[in-house]
Structures are given as structure tokens and as C-alpha cells.
Write a structure and sequence with these properties.
By secondary structure, this protein is an alpha+beta fold. Helices cover 33% and strands 17% of the residues. A 6-stranded mixed sheet has the order 1-6-5-4-3-2. This is Ribonuclease N.
């Protein structure tokens, strides 16, 4: 009777350990998806949602190529100072950030999507006109 009871306890313990191990793996994976994983996330992007270039909309990838090539840009405001008035990005001196329009299919004007770059090559993406940002991991 005692052996049978000890076997049940051992079995229950092993099931709990297996569930715990699987749960820990899932937690770590979801964290890595949210911010790219602490080891691979640059310091400027830590603590905020991230996105890799390949997960950006095609129009954002095109805008990134234009930024890397120095233009020409399709919108007159592209490359102008982004003031960060909403305070969603790290506080930096005026002129630190530049903004670029990401074309939104179906929009007649500039739409809500932007890429914002920093002097130290940081890149941020917003699809809701600065209400939120994701750090772009390049």
C-alpha cells in the first residue's frame, strides 16, 4: 500500500515537473517574440516591442531601402525632424530623430504609418501615427 502510494506521488511529481519545464519554455519563447530576446536585442530597443525587417509590411521595407540609399523620397516631409512630442521614444535632443512616410495602400495622403530613425541608427516603426512604436531589428 505504501509503495503504491509513493509511486503515485512520484508519478504526480514527474507530471508536475514536465508541465513546469514546458511552461518555462513557452514563457521564454513568448518573451523572445515580444522583444527579440534580451541577448539579441540592442540596448536602445529593450523594454519595447520589436519587429524584424522581414516582418514589416512590404511598403516599410521599401522605405527602409530608400533611407539606406539616401533617397529620393516620395513625400516632402520625409527626412524631416521628428519631435517625439508624444514621448513614446527615448528622450533625445531636438533633431535626433527623423521621420519617413510608409505608404499605406488605399490612402490618398500620407496615412498613419511611419519609420523614425535616430542618429545612432536606431529604427522604429509605427502604424498608428505615433500612438505606439516597435523597435526595428536590422
Amino acid at each position: 500500500m505504501i509503495i503504491r502510494s509513493a509511486g503515485r506521488v512520484l508519478c504526480a511529481l514527474l507530471v508536475c515537473l514536465a508541465a513546469l519545464a514546458m511552461g518555462c519554455g513557452t514563457q521564454r519563447d513568448s518573451g523572445a517574440a515580444r522583444d527579440g530576446g534580451a541577448a539579441s536585442t540592442p540596448a536602445w530597443a529593450r523594454g519595447m516591442p520589436t519587429v524584424t525587417v522581414d516582418r514589416l509590411p512590404a511598403e516599410a521595407r521599401r522605405t527602409l531601402r530608400l533611407i539606406d540609399e539616401g533617397g529620393p523620397f516620395p513625400y516632402p516631409k520625409d527626412g524631416t525632424v521628428f519631435g517625439n512630442f508624444e514621448g513614446r521614444l527615448p528622450r533625445e535632443p531636438r533633431g535626433y530623430y527623423r521621420e519617413y512616410t510608409v505608404r499605406t495602400p488605399g490612402e490618398r495622403g500620407r496615412g498613419a504609418r511611419r519609420l523614425v530613425t535616430g542618429r545612432e541608427h536606431e529604427t522604429y516603426y509605427t502604424d498608428d501615427h505615433y500612438a505606439s512604436f516597435k523597435a526595428v531589428l536590422r
